[in-house]
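Data deposition worksheet. Section B asks for the primary sequence of the deposited chain exactly as it was used as input, without tags or linkers unless they were present during the calculation. Section C holds the resulting structure in token form. Section D is free text for depositor observations; keep each observation to a single sentence. Incomplete worksheets are returned to the depositor.
Section A, Depositor: J.P.
Section B:
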Amino acid sequence: MSRRVYGSDPDDPDTGPVPGRVYVELVGGPLDGQLLDVSGWSPLEMADGALLMSERGAFGPGGRSAYEPAEADGVYPGRFGWRGDVP
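Section C:
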């Protein structure tokens, strides 16, 4: 079973990663285990992380979940760790 890419259509039978693209794994929070496509992101964008729409976060539909590079925590490269939810 392939892992789901953040933002993919849930009705799409193939929501997995696309060859040739670059992904980070989202760790913790409501999007745990999903992959985020960061192809073409600059080093600054990677360092900033992402504020992602999440229907399952603390603020329900329309809320966002904050993720940032997990390397700062001494975790594994290639992962963004959850930092909390915002309205």
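Section D:
The chain has one domain: 23-86.
The mean pLDDT is 86.
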